[in-house]
Amino acid sequence: MKKIVIFAFAGLLSFMVLSTSCDKVDAPYMTIGGGGVVGDTVRKVLLEDFTGHLCVNCAAAHLAIEGLQVVYPKRIIPMVIHVGFFAKPKPAPYDYDFRTSTGDDIAAQFGATAAPLPKGMVNRIDDGGYLLDPADYATAVSLVLDSMPSKPDIFIELSSSFNSTDSTISVDAKMSVFKNMPAGKYNISVMVVESKIVEAQKNTNPNINNGKEILDYEHNDVLRGAINTTWGEEFADAALTDGQVFNKSYSKYKIGSDWKPDDLKIIAFVYYADGPNDKVVIQAEEIHLK
Amino acid sequence: MVKKILFACAISFFSFSTINAQSQVLGGGEVHGSFQADAQYYKQDSAIGANEIAEEMAVNAFLEMRYTNKGFEAGMRYELFMPQMQGYDSRWKGNGFGYRYIRYSNDRIDVTAGNFYEQFGSGMILRSYQEWNLGFDNSMDGVRVKYKMKALTIKGLVAKQRLFWDLGPGIVRGIDGELSVNDLFKSFSDSKTRLFFGGSFVSRYQIDQNPLYNLPENVASCAGRFQIYHGGFNLKMEMAKKINDPNATNNFIYKEGNAVMAELGYSQKGLGLSLQLNRSDNMDFRSSRTATGFDSHVGYIPAMTRQHAYSLAAMYPYASQANGQMGLQATIVYKLKKRSTLGGRYGTSIDVNYSVSNSIYKQAINDTTKIGQTGTLGYSSDFFKLGDEKYYYDFNIKIQRKLSKKWNVSLMYMNVYYNMLINEGHNSPDVYADIIIGDVWWKFKPYNSLHFELQALFTEQDDGNWSSAMVEYNRKGFFGAVILLYNHGNDLAGHTVVDSQLYPFLTLGYTHKATRISAGYGKQREGIVCVGGVCRAVPASNGFSLTINSSF
Q: Which residue of A has its CA nearest to B166?
């Protein structure tokens, strides 16, 4: 009798586990588009991707970002930061130096300098650590864009101009507060990124270029520098109220000699500069320089 | 420097004063445990690519203790990585109690709450274990119940997995049963044939918050196995299957996974034969679908290759490919008779081993979908068809002969092929290498012996040829060794130029009862350390190292 009870118990347990622990998914397996509302006054995320031209898995991370940009059109602001061992210049064709002091500072602050790459951050949110694997980018983006109101807490409007005579950039940023926010320090960071830089990229992902390195890889959204220093500038040290507007202007930022103005973008983001949400990005925006 | 020496002395003192106390009796129970500390002082050496670290010295250490009193047991392990030694994941940095549990067991039932290690069958769908030298620990943190009957043992568990100093996001549920047919039926109880059957089911739950993919939150896997022993023969087989598990290691494809392992063995006096076969297809199973590298493994697909102890033989080890590999390993161990022409006065043993691992055959599921394309079924695969790509092979033969009561000699030859992309993840030329090793033990006095070892590795790829010489002296508990490892460099056309380099290393040690202390100084090459097909890259280093381990 005892054995019968035990076998019955084991059978019941097995049935419970077997019948409740298996989700078979049928096609379609992927979502095409549908990342909520599209428009200017929508919440956007800053997606910082730590990468390197010697990193064999980094091209796949770039592809993951492009996939997210399809699902969330104009709501993802990528900033690709070349850092650490995998970004060091090596003999040609890996002799180009993508690194920046701004990128190095950001990597050091968030622990990416010696981390195995690729890694990334979404809005600099610390969810048991700032750094994410590329496979986690989508979930982290969704938690911001799908779980939070589509209307941003602070709306950023950018305008920029380029003076070809002295190769300098001017940027005006207008921050409009859309909801009451707690007392604290608020910073704005303004960065320059460049796309369409054709240089070599290591790769072993069999789904990209058959797992071979790509000598004419198009590097996009590469961080070039900070217009108002790595950690930006404080624009408020108080509670913010719905309807408040702040303006910041920057000028005479000289671009690098090999930067192509047509491929430059200005990225701006506002973030909490103290308190429990210290460093968390509230809203991001981008604009083509030309 | 003085501070570092004091620190090293403190570790030594701690080990001796604490560890030499043998198992303690406490309230009728007993306390047992073990301790290990590995310390390395790093010096910059640009010639070998060794870097110093800001802290100058790194220490990995643990102290494990368990208290047992009748059926009750409680244990913990304090771990320290301050900072972690080079080559260990930086997420280890820190210290704390990484492992703790309470347990009660009697003849029938065994209940554990807290951390535990567990394995179902060969581990294909569940194996949690720790490898200190790899920096690997995927212990479970939850509840496990085992119920033992005469013929049947049932295990069940619900847990999360350790991920460095945190827990992974997934919940692992599993049940396993193993049946002894001989114990079930009285008529078989005295049979010379022993037969066992087993079955496992493991499921992982992880919430789907991914906007790109429609992901299964519950991913199930199951496995069945049997083992037969008859006389000198044994046959083991296990088959596993996993339902759709799109994850970061398979590029988020929805194909089902499967794996098979089989082993046939025979042994009698002076002869041992074994043949192992395995095939795994999309079987990387983790408690987090976004995990890569060492993180959050639930299943374990071992490498079916020999794990070599000699340094040059272990230079190119195979890293198991759970998402696609077909391999076999055959081993023959034969002992030539004592006092025969070939066997000599004391006998000679010959050990021949061959292992090979290939890719599996993959075919596109239709004309518009690339093989492995994300968000699709990925590919189809003919179970019995080999893929085009060879991952690894290793042929080795070792002859060992005792020449006299004082002299023991062994010679080894090894031929290895090593696919760089598969094993190290970069597109460098694959390695073809021949390795020759001679090993002589001379026991010239009671408790006194000398050990000479010469190794040579010949290859035109990677870093080129290597050679190594070692002299080791053992006297009772003391040992000392000098190792000279030399890389001859590689300047052949088509390869990155590698300059020749000498890696001298001196090590001294002392073993007293269950405590061993060893210290070393010198250069160590960068390389790969593998245990059971799980591999870790070790950067080059130059400096002082200290290891203490003990159990009580």
A: A128
Q: Which tens digits make up the pLDDT trace of B129-147?
A: 999 888 999 999 999 999 9
Residue A207 is nearest to which of B217, B373, B426, comparing CB atoms?
B373
pLDDT at B378: 95
Beta strands B348-360 and B534-538, pairing class:
unpaired
Identify the closest residue of chain A to B147 by CA–CA distance. A6
Q: Where are the beta strands (DSSP E) in B18-148?
A: 24-26, 29-41, 57-69, 72-81, 94-105, 109-116, 130-131, 136-137, 140-148
Domains of chain B, residue spans = 106-227+276-301
**Residues composing chain A:** 290
> Which residue of A10, A138, A207 is in closest CB contact with B210?
A138
In chain A, which residue's Cα lies nearest the Cα of B86?
A: A114
Residue type, A42: V
Number of residues that this document lists for chain B: 552
C-beta of residue B310 within 8 angstroms of C-beta of residue B416: no
Q: Do B211 and A17 touch (CB under 8 A)?
A: no
Q: Hey, CA dihedral for A184, A185, A190, A193, is it positive or negative? A: negative
The two beta strands, A76-82 and A154-163, are unpaired
Alpha carbon distance A69, B35 (integer Å): 51
The mean-pLDDT minimum among A96-105, A149-158, B6-15, B179-188 falls in B6-15
Q: Which residues of B touch A56 (CB under 8 A)?
A: 425-427
- B249 CA to centre of own chain: 20
Whole-angstrom CA distances from B339 to A26, B336, B343, B351, B442 are 69, 9, 6, 19, 21
Distance, in Å, from the CA atom of B258 to the CA atom of B291, rounded to the nearest integer, reads 20
List, in order, residues 6 or more apart from B543 with CB less than 8 Å away.
B40, B41, B42, B43, B50, B521
Q: What percent of chain B has pLDDT over 90?
A: 77
Neighbours of B18 (CB within 10 A): 14
Which of A133, A121, A87 is CA-nearest to residue A279?
A121
Nearest to B211 among A24, A138, A205 (CB): A138
DSSP string, chain A: -HHHHHHHHHHHHHHHHHHHS-----S--B--S--S--SSSS--EEEEEEE-TT-TTHHHHHHHHHHHHHHSTTTEEEEEEE-SGGGS--STTS------HHHHHHHHHHT-SSSPSSEEEETT--SSSS-B-HHHHHHHHHHHHTTS-SS-SEEEEEEEEEETTTTEEEEEEEEEE-S-B-SSEEEEEEEEEE--EEEEE----TTSGGG--EEEEEE-SEEEEETT-TT-EEEEES-B-TT-EEEEEEEEEEPPTT--GGGEEEEEEEEE-SSTTTT-EEEEEEEE--
φ and ψ of A20, to 5 deg: -115, -5
Q: Which two tokens stand for residue B265?
A: 């063995």
Which residue on chain B is closest to A132 by alpha carbon?
Answer: B290
- Closest by CA to B466, choosing from B514, B441, B498, B443, is B498
Looking at the complex, does the CB of residue A35 fall below 8 Å from at least one CB of chain B?
yes
Domains by residue range for chain A, with CATH: 35-288 (2.60.40.10)
Q: What is the pTM of this model?
A: 0.85
Q: Tokens in use for A215?
A: 């000598």
- How far apart are the C-alpha atoms of A249 and A160, rounded to whole Å? 10
Mean pLDDT of chain B: 91
pLDDT digits (tens, 9 = 90+) for B321-356: 999 999 999 999 999 999 888 888 999 999 999 999
A contact residues 185-244, partner B, Cβ 8 Å cutoff: 202, 204-207, 211-213
